[in-house]
Specification:
alpha/beta, 278 residues, eight-stranded mixed sheet, binds manganese (II) ion, binds adenosine monophosphate
Length: 278
C-alpha cells in the first residue's frame, strides 16, 4: 500500500499549490491517500476530489481549525465533516473573516513601525484566506527579512511580536464539540510543535479532549523530534486513540516541499475510517 498523508495546505489557506497541483504531486510521489486540510476552510476539497478521481487517489476532506487553550494555539484537524453543516461552515466563515481584519491590523501595525508593506500586496499573495505566512512573504519581498521564518520574531509577527494581533479562535474543547456535531473525526495536529516560544499542547488538555471524543493524535510530523514521536505514540496507545503521520505540506512556502515526507500507517488509517463508519 502506498503512502497516506493526512495534512496538506493549498492556496485556500497558506499553501502554494492549487488543489489539483497538490493532488498531482501526491500521485507523483506515490501517495494513495491525501487529506486537503486548509486552515479554517474546506473550499479546496471539491477541486481536489475532481483531480483525485482522475489520478486514482483518495481524498480525505479535512480542515485545520485554529483553537486556543490558556492563550496558547492548539490546532485541531477535522476529517470527513458534513461539509454542508450550517453551524460548522458558519464558524469557518467567521474564522476566515477574522483572519482578514486581523491581517489588515497587523499590516497597519507594521506600517506604524516603519516597515514598507501594503495590505493590497498581502491580499494579492493570499488570494483570499489570509495567514501570517502571507504577511511574512510581503516582508521578505520588501527586504525587511531574508526569509519567511525571520518574520515570526518579537519585533514583527511572532506570537509575542510588536505587530502581532491575535485571531478569533474557539476554545479547544468547544472546537472539538463543534467538530463532533458536524460528525467529523478529530485529530490533534502536531501537539509537540514549538515554532518559537509556543509550548507543546498540555498533556492534561489532550487527556480531557480524549475523554470528550478526540479520535487521534498527529504523532509523526516534520516538527516533532524522535523523543516527541515516541511520547505521543505511547500516549495515543494509552488513550486508545489513533496515531497519524502527516507532512503538513505548505507547497513551496517551506523548503523542501514536504508532500509525503511523513505518512500514516495503513492500519491506523483503517481505525480512523472505522470511527467515521467508513
Ligand atoms: P496564522 O494562522 O495566521 O497565525 O499563521 C500561522 C501559520 O504560520 C502556521 O500554520 C505556520 O504555517 C506558520 N508559522 C507559524 N510560526 C512560524 C514560524 N516560527 N516560522 C515559520 N512559519 C510559522
Ligand atoms: Mn500554515
Ligand atoms: Mn498547524
Ligand atoms: Mn497545517
Amino acid at each position: 500500500m502506498a503512502g497516506i498523508d493526512l495534512h496538506a495546505h493549498t492556496i485556500y489557506s497558506d499553501g502554494t499549490f492549487t488543489p489539483p497541483e497538490a493532488v498531482d504531486l501526491a500521485a507523483e510521489r506515490g501517495l494513495s491517500v491525501l487529506s486537503i486540510s486548509d486552515h479554517d476552510s474546506t473550499e479546496g476539497v471539491a477541486e481536489a476530489e475532481g483531480a483525485a478521481a482522475r489520478a486514482g487517489l483518495e481524498i480525505v476532506p479535512g480542515v485545520e481549525l485554529s483553537t486556543v487553550h490558556d492563550h496558547g494555539p492548539v490546532h485541531l484537524l477535522c476529517y470527513w465533516p458534513d461539509l454542508w453543516d450550517e453551524e460548522f461552515q458558519g464558524e469557518l466563515r467567521r474564522l476566515r473573516e477574522d483572519r482578514w481584519t486581523r491581517g489588515e491590523r497587523m499590516v497597519e501595525k507594521l506600517q506604524a513601525l516603519g516597515y514598507p508593506i501594503t495590505f493590497e500586496r498581502v491580499r494579492e499573495i493570499a488570494q483570499g484566506n489570509i495567514g501570517r505566512p502571507h504577511i511574512a512573504q510581503a516582508l521578505v519581498e520588501a527586504g525587511v527579512v531574508p526569509e519567511l521564518k525571520g518574520a515570526f520574531s518579537d519585533e514583527l509577527i511572532g506570537t509575542d511580536g510588536r505587530a502581532y494581533v491575535e485571531k478569533h479562535a474557539l476554545a479547544s474543547l468547544d472546537a472539538l464539540a463543534l467538530v463532533k456535531r458536524a460528525r467529523g473525526i478529530a485529530v490533534l495536529a502536531h501537539p509537540g510543535l514549538r515554532w518559537k516560544k509556543e509550548l507543546p499542547v498540555p498533556d492534561e488538555l489532550i487527556e480531557r479532549m480524549a475523554g470528550a471524543g478526540l479520535d487521534g493524535l498527529e504523532v509523526d510530523h516534520p516538527d516533532h523530534d524522535a523523543a516527541a514521536r515516541a511520547r505521543y505514540r505511547e500516549m495515543a496507545r494509552r488513550l486508545g486513540i489513533v496515531a497519524t503521520g502527516s507532512s503538513d505540506c505548505h507547497g513551496t512556502r517551506y523548503d523542501p516541499v514536504r508532500m509525503g515526507s511523513e505518512t500514516t500507517d495503513p492500519e491506523e488509517f483503517a481505525r480512523l475510517k472505522s470511527r467515521k463508519g467508513l
